[in-house]
Amino acid sequence: MALTTWALGPALRLCAAGPVCSWEMLHVAGAGVCGCCGALRPRYKRLVDNIFPEDPEDGLVKTNMEKLTFYALSAPEKLDRIGAYLSERLIRDVSRHRYGYVCIAMEALDQLLMACHCQSINLFVESFLKMVAKLLESEKPNLQILGTNSFVKFANIEEDTPSYHRSYDFFVSRFSEMCHSSHDDLDIRTKIRMSGIKGLQGVVRKTVNDELQANIWDPQHMDKIVPSLLFNLQHVEESESRSPSPLQATEKEKESPTELAERCLRELLGRAAYGNIKNAIKPVLIHLDNHSLWEPKIFATCCFRIIMYSIQPQHSHLVIQQLLGHLDANSKSAATVRAGIVEVLSEAAVIAASGSVGPTVLEVFNTLLRQLRLSIDYALTGSYDCGAGVSTKIIKEHEERMFQEAVIKTIGSFASTLPTYQQSEVMVFIMNKVPLPSTQQSIEAGKAGENRNRLTQIMLLKSLLQVSVGFQCSNMLTALPSVFLDRLLSAALMEDAEIRLFVLEILISFIDRHGNRQKFSTISTISDISVLKLKVDKCSRQDTVFMKKHGQQLYRHIYLICKEESNVQAHYEALYSMLMLISIELANEEVMVDLIRLVLAVQEIAQINEDNLTAYNRCALFALGAAYLNLISQLTTVPTFCQHIHEVIEMRQKEAPYLLPEDVFVERPRLSKSLDRLGPEVFFWQSKISEVLGGSGYNSDRLSTPYVPQLTDEDRLSKRKSIGETISLQVEVESRNSPEREQRAPAEEITYETLKKAIDSVAVEEQERERRRQVVEKFQKAPFEEIAAHCGARATLLQSKLNQIFEITIRPPPSPSGTITAAYGQPQNHSIPVYEMKFPDLCVY
Amino acid sequence: MSMEDYDFLFKIVLIGNAGVGKTCLVRRFTQGLFPPGQGATIGVDFMIKTVEINGEKVKLQIWDTAGQERFRSITQSYYRSANALILTYDITCEESFRCLPEWLREIEQYASNKLTVLGNKIDLADKREVSQQRAAEFSEAQDMYYLETSAKESDNARQNTLENNVSSPLPGEGKSISYLTCCNFN
Ligand SMILES: Nc1nc2c(ncn2[C@@H]2O[C@H](COP(=O)(O)OP(=O)(O)O)[C@@H](O)[C@H]2O)c(=O)[nH]1
Ligand SMILES: [Mg+2]
């Protein structure tokens, strides 16, 4: 053995001289020249010594290096000794500051490493790493960089034998430290930092796939590597400001720590397996916390963009979950911080492939909704611990508001990544969280409770709107389950104008499946519908079924919303859009007829004005009717219909322009006080319309019947629901009364017992119809004050009784509000029973 | 022939509020100088020094950490593998001393060895805010070593405190691991 190695030396020398050589040749030749070397030191040492020139400036002695390489290749068992000796020399040279020789030793090591990637490399690596470590220990930037470069070369070698006891702790620590270099010289600092990043990249490459080695994914390493990379990523401005010319900029960029750090981070994350994601992301979150980087959120967003694009897509939900967890952990942090986290979540959700939310869809939304509620509480109480004690932090309401907006946006982002059926699930989930008077959800009493309820309602409806915007349902029937629609519509009947508007907007989002809604955003009486370039598909069978099932409910709500005095332009615009969208999305002939009837009934609201609406409300309703009929007549393409509508509009232009949208829906509407003295020619006439449309094959019988909001047959199936809506209506009417009008009807009298009595006295079907007609009539004729007087009581006792009843009911008004109001105004009087209510047994407990 | 240039290796981590003089102490110890106005440490700093104690070469890896809160996570990751943790405060700054319990909490989960409390800047005796007695009592109560020094005028500390700190290492596993258990109070 020893003989062979000794013998090989001269052979190598020979070989270097000649142009061709083979191993046989070498061996043969080597055997012959054995005894000729008389050096005292072992051959490998001499070979090593020979690679160092007299003058370090001359660099590595190339020919001798080749000899050393051949020697090492032919006698791999000597590699460890060569390594040890080289390292000994290097350490000595470092301490003697002979840096030229240090570089030469390193170069030799690199070359040996490259040449010998066989199993035996293992023997060599230990001394190699020792030398790298030695260089890294140095204060001299050049040596640090030299060491790093060698390490990087080593890191790119794939070893086939694992090494059990190798530790990279020092390398990770030192490279991370280098990433933070604060060397005075900017250029050197940049170089050291880049070296640090490259070194970390090397460690990652070297260890990431080797389960036997120190686990790079352990927190002890991740907590150094990740923040070091982020620290460099973060200082993008610094390097940018140094590159004036664009050409230089691109060059610089290639060489900037920022860019390098990003690449390294991407590589790291790309290699992260399922179980490692958590350890890799946690330090990111902590770094962003510590460096206050959630606000402004630009950097945080940038980080998570990198993360989401780099990790394997099937892991993205883990990141989302961690962010959600972090949001919860920051529940009591400043609103700006929470907002930052939420915005990042939103971005991340969009990037993540669909299904990013993972297995726990509702959990995600639950967390977001919880945060929303918390924020509402913070803003209301001005304290992080609700109700209790003093809070040290000052809560800024406008910041909470911004946070809430961010949460809502994020809810939308998440929902948009979901398949339709899950979106619909989410909407039901959100809707169920909206506190409504008609449900068992705790409606808190008192001013604060009211306030909280209202804010919660608004925020949740906003969230819902956000979801509905991204919701594409081809099948309304399955997408909007009855329970959902019922709850949503019942929210529309709350007194609150803002809430009402949200409900309308949400419905519009659902109905508009062809992107037509913008075309109806301004109410007008355009003479040619074709300019709108409407996109229309034929109404599908499911849509027809949907309208059969829910049409009456929708009409009734539109009708009732029209009667609200607090409506502003936005409401009328939404009503207009809604009517138009139903007409083009969901309407068959029958629906069309009903819509026309509905709009004519709305005209009557304005005309008769039993609700004591303002001039503006009334003009707006007139204008709304004109605009709708104008478009719908053109859609039917029945010339006589168009003509009638056109005539009325022309007449209004001449006689009463304040009844047209162009005059009403402007900044300063021109209204008229004399709305009660209008001539018949400015109205649309039901008789006329049913005549002209009947002539074109439309159902003129139906057309000539005035629309009266009522229970549909479907509604009848679940009449128990009507009690709920009856009461909510009553509450509504009541609450609109001014206190002076309150009189009579002490609250105690309207008890559950009285209701029960009323229920018991429900008459037979025949009588029922007749009486209904009477009462409708009575109601229509009675002055508002009178009706209002009937329902004066609004004591909390009543409220709580009603709430009790709400619990067993499901949803809102089937009948003209006036009717019920009148009936309830005299609850003891059995001669005016609550006609249209037949209460199933389960209701009367 | 040994490939190593040391018999023992110690990792020492310095912690304490920003401005108490950690970086200066390390410089004084490793380079023998008191650095003129250098900036606050960013993240961590690294220095190496080999000393001979009882004829044995002891290599000290010194990790000097940034005191600022924002680097807390990265500096924390260096506590873990430390053989010795040195809590530094400024004797002329009450606040830096009062923060020590907070630092103790911070390192609680990592510190397995007896800690050292180090009061710096004794050259500014007239500005002293933390008495020796108070610091000694505190350290004793927490079972920590305690000493005072000055990075600026290291005359009274014949050997630097850092070195004292490792004067009697226990033989550890192999060559590279050892413990720091004793401290010389001059
Ligand atoms: N007088 C005096 N000043 C010191 C001493 N040590 C450090 N300083 C000063 O204290 C300031 C902070 O020192 P530095 O080492 O950066 O503190 P670090 O943040 O703990 O690393 C600098 O202005 C130093 O000049 C000392 O022993 N005596
Ligand atoms: Mg410092």
Automatic annotation (TrEMBL), chain A:
Q: What parts of the sequence cross the membrane?
A: none
What topology does the record note for this protein and the membrane?
Lipid-anchor
Q: Where is the composition biased (Basic and acidic residues)?
A: 250-259
* This protein's record includes keyword Nucleus: no
Q: Which GO terms describe its cellular component?
A: cytosol; plasma membrane
Q: How does the record describe its quaternary structure?
A: Component of a phosphatidylinositol 4-kinase (PI4K) complex, composed of PI4KA, EFR3 (EFR3A or EFR3B), TTC7 (TTC7A or TTC7B) and HYCC (HYCC1 or HYCC2).
The entry's function note states: Component of a complex required to localize phosphatidylinositol 4-kinase (PI4K) to the plasma membrane. The complex acts as a regulator of phosphatidylinositol 4-phosphate (PtdIns(4)P) synthesis. In the complex, EFR3B probably acts as the membrane-anchoring component. Also involved in responsiveness to G-protein-coupled receptors; it is however unclear whether this role is direct or indirect.
What is the protein name given in its UniProt record?
Protein EFR3 homolog B
Which taxonomic lineage is given here?
Eukaryota, Metazoa, Chordata, Craniata, Vertebrata
Automatic annotation (TrEMBL), chain B:
* Gene3D superfamilies hit by this protein: P-loop containing nucleotide triphosphate hydrolases
What does the record give as EC number?
3.6.5.2
What membrane topology term does the record carry?
A: Lipid-anchor
Domain of life per record: Eukaryota
UniProt feature coiled coil, ranges: none
Instruction: Supply the alphabetized keyword list.
Output: Cytoplasm, Cytoplasmic vesicle, Golgi apparatus, GTP-binding, Hydrolase, Lipoprotein, Lysosome, Magnesium, Membrane, Metal-binding, Methylation, Nucleotide-binding, Prenylation
Q: Which GO terms describe its molecular function?
A: G protein activity; GTP binding; metal ion binding
The UniProt record lists the keyword Iron-sulfur: no
**Recorded family membership:** Belongs to the small GTPase superfamily. Rab family.
- What this protein is called in its record is Ras-related protein Rab-30
User: Which species is the source of this protein?
Assistant: Melopsittacus undulatus (Budgerigar)
Taxonomic lineage of this organism? Eukaryota, Metazoa, Chordata, Craniata, Vertebrata
